[in-house]
Input
Amino acid sequence: PGQGPKTRAAMPMNNSANAFSYLVSTLLDLYITAVMLRLLLQWVRADFYNPVCQFLIKVTNPALLPLRRVIPAVGRLDTASIVLLLALEFFSVWIVSRIGSSPLSPAGIAAFSVTKLLATLLVTYFILIIANVLLSWVAGRARHPVVPLVYQLTEPVLRPFRRVIPPIAGIDLSPVFALIGIRFLLLLLGW
Output
């Protein structure tokens, strides 16, 4: 009630723009997460014969290999992966910004892209730490290929907390304080 023909006609266009924006953003976010996981697995020197690692390599190689020919690594840091992450995130934010009603400036897109990448990294670690805790309760030493990767990825984050807060009566509280710290950082970023 109270909507004129112009408002009703604009609604399907807005819905289709929202649907397209969601689809593009989700697909790009999934690929960005795959590249980020590959970078993190390289950082912790995970077993790249692991099936999960092999999957990530095959999915990300088409975009990474050409970049690696142009952008060399700096020490252990795979700079080609970082450039790819920034470019994909910039493109994702730019596309969603253009589809939406208020496009951002290039500086706004760059700032939001960096913030979103940091938030993605923090959320990834938040999920990995929860997975680590759940696996320690139910899986023990399960043989699924994801289990050792979860432990390898979370260990560098949990180790500093374990130094400050050692296990109390055999209970490791480091994941609780790591999750609190990650949530604090996400709130600082505005997520």
Remarks:
- Confidence is low (pLDDT under 50) at residues 4-11.
- The first helix runs from residue 5 to 43.
- The CA atoms of residues 16 and 22 lie 10 Å apart.
